Amino acid sequence: MLVTMKTPIIRVKDVHKSYGRGPNRFDALKGVTFDINEGESIAIIGKSGSGKSTLMHVLALLDAPTSGSLELEGVETSTLHGKSLNQARNKTFGFVFQQFFLTANSSVLENVMLPMKIAGVKRSERKQRALAALEQLEMADKAGNKAVNLSGGQKQRSVIARALVNNPRIIFADEPTGNLDTATGAVVEDILFNLNREHGITLIVVTHDEELAARCDRRLYIRDGLLVNDTTEVAA
Hints:
alpha/beta, Rossmann fold, six-stranded mixed β-sheet
């Protein structure tokens, strides 16, 4: 039987990222190489200053490599600029951040609709899709509430709903439970891993939490800008 090899959804080849010049130059990434396959759950692990957040920003097209190659679904991302770059980022990725980044005095519904507004989706469709995402996260009854009045867990559910409205192929979760208590954090983790395992969304988690990382299929350990270990065993 002929087996068709699948192109990785993200391919990273000898990526470097530096800031500053001359004696003030800082090398945040020092030649990292790896592939990410569609449907994987991956933890990027490292201490503060290790380069893990820089790596996430590069993978998510929020920052460009200084050198090396980054391919997204077979397309070299250095060829993407302006509108094409924004479209690739907005249509492919969803983001879940520790700090939530919700507009405090806007409603939950308006916050969740924001990525679709950026994408140019009509308001009627934005509302329909946002309400469907909130329903999925059991937050539809909070749609009219201001974000400032939500609990931490409700804010993170709203953020996950916002991440889902453009039907992303990949979700980036940057310390997604860092501002939550243990019980609420466990619920948020379950939601993210359900989206990965039941819906096939590729999940990339940036964390220093070994217990959270252990739930992922694969773990990338970053130290001083280098990929020092790529643990690919499926977590028990």
